[in-house]
Structure formats: structure tokens, C-alpha cells
Amino acid sequence: MRRARPGATRRATGASRALAAVGDRQDGRPLKSVAAGETCRATQQTGDQGRAPRLWHITLSVSGADTPPARVRRGLEQLAHDHPFLLTSRYAADHAEIRYWEEARDLHDAAAVALRLWGEHRTSADLPAWEIVGLEVIDRDTYHQRVAEGYEPRPGGSVAIRPFF
Known about the structure:
By secondary structure, this protein is an alpha+beta fold.
């Protein structure tokens, strides 16, 4: 779907196309891009400038009414296809656990995205209408420390979706 302002006649390209996709302000004035090196006022006030995104290891636990395990598995396979950073999933008829990497500025942002994951993909991946019952968010260094100490499974090469034993 292509969006354009009423009366616009020329086709947008490059950065102007990205701005057009975002839209205009409610008062009709167009949005302006920020030049390289500039920071927004909110970033200057919170002191977040220069903070690069980091990788966070997420473990999301969901639970709910009994669902045929084959349906749960199909849903998790579709979620793995839709969400490229999925590492492992374990499932049973009434609960599941998903582990994946998320890139975010801080723990709060990573947790917010994780808490939306199941609900946002529930329809597209045909996931059960379960609720989130657990969330763990740890930074990359902590994850690797746990792996070294034997508390976490060794990182594998492919996505693993398996039942709980």
C-alpha cells in the first residue's frame, strides 16, 4: 500500500519515502528528519545518547488450556520462521518456553518487546490463547557465563523445537 499526502504529485524516493510512510503531524505540517549527529531533546534530557543497542537473552514462558501438542508445535515452528532470532522452544499441551535473542537499548526495552511477542504473533502463527507466566531477560555476558558454568544449554547451530520431557 502506498501512502501520499492529498495533492502530492511527484513520487517520493529514498529518505523522503521513509518519512512519507510515517506520515504527517495532525496539524498538517510534515515531519522532518534529524540530520546526522543531531539528537532529539528527549534523548538529551534522559542521557541516553550514545547508548548502543545490546543483545539480551530472553526466556518467555506461557501457559494455558490444553491444546493438541501438534498444533502447539506448528505454531512454534511458524513463530521461529517469523522471528529470526529464535533459539529454542519447548512445549507441552498446556505450556511452552521460548528462548531467543533480542536487540534493545536496555533491559526495559527488551522486556517490553518480549512481553508483546506472544500476543503479536498469536494470530499469524496460530499460537494458543495462552498467557505469559514468566519472563527472564539477561544480558549477553551473563548468558555466556551461565553457559560456561553449565547452567544453560550450549548454543546450537539450528533452531530446536522439542517437547518437554
